[in-house]
Amino acid sequence: MKEIVVISGKGGTGKTSIVAAFAALAGKKVLADCDVDAADLHLVLNPRIEHREDFSGGKKAKILEDKCIACDRCIEECRFDAIHYPILGNGKTADTPYINPIFCEGCGVCVRVCPADAISFEPAVNGEWYTSSTNYGPMVHARLGMAEGNSGKLVTQIRQEARDIAERDNLDYIIVDGSPGIGCPVIASITGADLVLVVTEPTLSGQHDLLRVAELTAYFRIPTIVCINKWDLNPDITEQIEEEAKERGVKPAGRIRYDNAITKAQIMKTSVVEYTGGAVSSDIKAVWQNVLYSLG
Amino acid sequence: MKIAIASGKGGTGKTTIATNLALTLANTGKTIQILDCDVEEPNCHIFLKPEIESSSPVTVLIPKVIEEKCTGCGICAEVCEYSAIAVIKGKVLIFPELCHSCGACKLFCPEDAFIEVPRELGIVEKGKTNGIRFVHGLLNIGELMSPAVISGVKKVAGESEILILDSPPGTSCPVIEAVKDAEFVLLVTEPTPFGLNDLELAVGMVRELNIPFAVAINRSDVGNEDVKEYCKREKIEIVLEIPDDRRIAEAYSRGEMVIHALPEYQKTFESCWTRITDLHENALQAGQHVKAATES
Questions:
Q1: Which CATH number is A97's domain given?
Q2: CATH number of B2-30+161-294
Q3: Residue of chain B minimizing CA distance to A266
Q4: pTM for the whole thing?
């Protein structure tokens, strides 16, 4: 069983469209949407949810107004500036402070310093994750609550679930749709994976962001290949990116031409390789062959 | 006026809009500051080409044990909600990447055996370009806590008439850190199913934060009408539409400003700004609070 993670550094380069195409091309696999901040893979793969579970990224503190003695110890010790006296509708200040759940990082300091035992500290439900069936095979995905944090922990949970499914059903591939950037959710998506495919675009931004992603995957020692989407937008930068990538041990995995069929397929809720037999589909098939070759 | 340019989906054109808006407004004689808050993959500098004048590290405080005082009681590990401390055979082990700098270990250590020492997570650079004051941050490779670096970027910002924050993509912790004290948020999207889905998530986030906002649609003619219908239904103003124009894409790929490659767009950004200031004014009059932290 091999795990392939598709990431990009720069957002909006076509990760999800390419993962959807891989879903149609790969043999026995499970799909995992680890872009939990802005999950989109379900819009193409139309999953039928079979099992859902709450996700808790950690605990949240809450002041029990009837017990609070307004001593302000919690406010003094909160390092996240999450506790304030709210201004009420009539313009007056409330009698007890309030912990804003958006800024509470669940450290529990306020709970422990409160002399009146007036702060509750319970696991917060920050989202839901699902195991589903699709026409392409099983899929694990999630929905993070509005303005919630801790996406790294949710990513780890999704990947573990996908791994369990792959082992149980004896599948060959775990295909992971990652998130943009190089921070917490991306690191949680790639650690221990067999291969990272970076999707970039031939722009100075794409080039800059690829170099940072390549440093990240080198830091975690994960074999990495790169494909350039919309390569014909700027053939010179495409070549430069491929050269620079090679110097860093990142092999080119192919070029995908600019074609509005990718957007049209998305609107038709299907993968581009099923939407058109055109050249852009051949490009993506070649990238998938390179993925297989790189996995050995 | 402090305005954040944000989007659920990556690659929708946040940086294009932030930089072109900044330069457009600078050309009208206003004092402008732009803060690139995408510290994982910053790109504003590619377009604005600022002259960097100073650079400083962004640090967070992490605990350090004074061995002579430590009795190995294990309370520090018990109170750490992030599993960043383990006590094994009476010896304290600290995992700095997991530390949220909440101070619990130091506060609750009965032996007063902790001090806090700075740890570098990234850097912040300041500079100037075309009369615009420029700040961006760079998260060190392999680090998880991008919000701390974003906070560092915001701390070094000075006073100006208009402050433009270019946010990272998504809807979780780094984005909230970037937009939380903005007076207005411009949400950038594209008219595709992915764009709409991620716009809905971003709208949920800014509503949760209670910040007035409007929408910009980039590549406004590539997909379908669903984004416009959604905005109409939700009574959200669309203050900017940029059509899909290969000349813009090519200029972008070379790191050129839209208003330099296609000067007619200066007017588009000017009228977008007028709409934004009107909406901001209306929101103020309607009493919409902007300091989410003090709200209940």
A1: 3.30.70.20
A2: 3.40.50.300
A3: B193
A4: 0.93
